[in-house]
């Protein structure tokens, strides 16, 4: 029997932050701790006076979290960074005290950069995972448009230098791995899904006609304005509703836009919600929409798939990896095309809709979190790894008839709810 590992997981963001990198780091840490490993998380403190070391509970599991004194990013409501001038010293002190078997960083910007240098100088095995697209960060910068391309190039070169110190580098999909290799000048980047526990999500026993759901940060890089404009184009006889679930700095702008377009009474912006409400909103949907053009995987889309929803997503970056018979792609930033694809789902026959539901459940099963944990355990131990295969054979259009029972009892393990809820 192999011995448990002492693992340090670091990142610039961690729960309670709500974003893909924080969600993955939280699920990974909890899953590893649940398997008996000693897990230490190092992340930026969530505010002044909140730094320090304490045992925290996440996903029903307790492990140690070291919160570093941090600074807020100007103009951003939640993003914070550990003090960069102290990070190498802090990293060295922690690694000397903990003597871990492996360090796994989730962002190379500040915390990961410091721990990469400290781990490498001490001969500690180092794994790096990329969740960043610098094209997204430009939305929160003051860099003039004419300078953004060279700045992005310089940032990717810098990322390549930090990731180049690693014993292994991962990112969530093969498409994003190819992109990272090309932009950062790296070789042999592993594609390892962020993973999802499908049994945590609930499949509705009925089709919830007309409910379109988006889940994610309500910020500019998600291109939610495209979804609102597309929604306003839908024929009134569909009696559709749009639920935008999540917090962010564009809530007021999108509410005003919906009012301006004459659909304010049918667009709901929930703000931040609990995990329970988020999952309930997905269960109550008929179709999920993801208009973002720079997703490295999109955990939110996988959550929707685990809830049995067809998906309409932008034909950009890694999203096509999640669409094959379970919905439709649309031309990025094209609200007319998005409206047309949403209408296809909303007007689909029950048989067609159930077929899309079944395919979503079938596809998301390949992203099981236990496979992700197995892969990272092997990487931590320095074993040879074959990247998990999350690509199912392309769906043939003449697949057989799917009944409601067939579509809602998929092997993904998704649970059902009482229709009265």
The secondary structure category is alpha/beta
Distance N terminus to C terminus? Answer: 46 Å
In order across it, which strands form the biggest sheet? 3-4-2-1-7-8-9-10
Let me know the largest β-sheet.
Answer: 8 strands, mixed
Report the top-level CATH class of the largest domain: Alpha Beta
Give the overall silhouette. globular
Helical element count?
Answer: 14
The CATH level-2 architecture of the largest domain is identified as 3-Layer(aba) Sandwich
What is the CATH topology of the largest domain? Rossmann fold
Structural Rg: 21 Å
Averaged pLDDT = 88
CATH superfamily of the largest domain: Glycogen Phosphorylase B
How many domains, in number, for the residues? 2
Number of strands: 18
The percentage helix is 25-40%
Keywords: Glycosyltransferase, Transferase
InterPro entries: Glyco_trans_4-like_N, Glycosyltransferase_grp1
Region (Disordered): 388-421
Pfam families: Glyco_trans_1_4, Glyco_transf_4
What order do the helices and strands come in, and which of them pair?
Blueprint: E1 6-11, H1 20-34, E2 38-44, E3 52-58, E4 61-68, E5 70-72, E6 80-82, H2 87-98, E7 102-105, H3 111-121, E8 125-129, H4 134-137, H5 145-163, E9 168-171, H6 174-184, E10 190-191, E11 202-203, E12 211-215, H7 224-233, E13 241-245, H8 251-260, E14 267-271, H9 275-283, E15 287-290, H10 299-306, E16 311-314, E17 327-330, H11 335-346, H12 350-364, H13 369-381, H14 404-407, E18 415-416
Characterization of the model:
- There is one protein chain.
- The protein is α/β, with parallel strands linked by helices and about 425 residues long.
- The chain has 2 domains: about 190 residues, Glycogen Phosphorylase B (Rossmann fold); about 190 residues, Rossmann fold (3-Layer(aba) Sandwich), CATH 3.40.50.2000.
- It contains 14 helices and 18 strands.
- The protein has an 8-stranded mixed sheet with strand order 3-4-2-1-7-8-9-10, sandwiched between helices. Strands 14-13-12-15-16-17 form a 6-stranded parallel sheet, with helices on both faces. A two-stranded antiparallel ribbon has the order 5-6.
- α1 crosses α13, α2 packs across α3 and α7 packs across α11.
- It is globular and about 65 Å long.
- The C terminus is likely disordered.
């Amino acid at each position: 029997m192999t011995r448990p590992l002492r693992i340090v997981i670091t990142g610039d963001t961690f729960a309670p932050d709500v974003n893909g990198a924080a969600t993955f780091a939280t699920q990974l840490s909890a899953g590893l701790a649940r398997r008996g490993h000693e897990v230490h998380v190092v992340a930026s403190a969530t505010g002044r006076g909140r730094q320090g070391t304490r045992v925290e509970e996440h996903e029903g599991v307790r492990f140690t979290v070291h919160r570093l004194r941090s600074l807020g990013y100007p103009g951003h409501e939640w993003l914070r960074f550990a003090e960069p001038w102290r990070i190498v010293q802090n990293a060295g002190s922690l690694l000397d005290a903990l003597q871990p078997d492996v360090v796994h960083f989730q962002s190379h910007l500040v915390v990961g950069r410091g721990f990469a240098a400290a781990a490498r100088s001490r001969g500690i095995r180092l794994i790096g995972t990329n969740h960043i697209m610098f094209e997204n960060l430009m939305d929160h910068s003051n860099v003039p448009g004419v300078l953004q391309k060279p700045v992005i190039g310089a940032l990717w070169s810098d990322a390549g230098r930090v990731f180049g110190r690693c014993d292994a580098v991962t990112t969530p999909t093969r498409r994003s791995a190819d992109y990272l290799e090309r932009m950062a000048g790296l070789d042999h980047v592993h594609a390892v899904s962020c993973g999802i526990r499908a049994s945590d999500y609930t499949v509705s026993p009925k089709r919830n006609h007309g409910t379109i759901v988006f889940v994610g940060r309500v910020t500019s890089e998600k291109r939610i304005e495209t979804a609102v404009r597309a929604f306003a184009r839908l024929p009134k006889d569909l009696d559709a509703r749009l639920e935008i679930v999540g917090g962010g700095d564009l809530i007021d702008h999108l509410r005003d836009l919906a009012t301006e377009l004459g659909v304010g009474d049918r667009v709901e912006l929930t703000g931040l919600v609990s995990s329970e409400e988020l999952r309930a909103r997905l269960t109550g949907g008929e179709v999920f929409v993801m208009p973002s053009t720079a997703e490295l995987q999109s955990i939110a889309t996988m959550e929707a798939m685990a809830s049995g929803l067809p998906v309409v997503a932008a034909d950009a970056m890694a999203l096509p990896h999640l669409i094959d018979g379970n919905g439709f792609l649309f031309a990025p930033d094209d609200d007319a095309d998005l409206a047309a694809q949403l209408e296809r789902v909303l007007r689909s026959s029950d048989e067609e809709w159930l077929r899309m539901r079944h395919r979503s459940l079938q596809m998301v099963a390949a992203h099981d979190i236990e496979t992700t944990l197995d892969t990272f355990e092997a990487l931590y131990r320095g074993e040879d790894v074959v990247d998990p295969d999350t690509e199912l054979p392309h769906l043939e259009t003449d697949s057989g008839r799917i009944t409601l029972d067939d579509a809602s009892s998929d092997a993904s393990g998704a649970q059902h709810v009482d229709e009265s809820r």
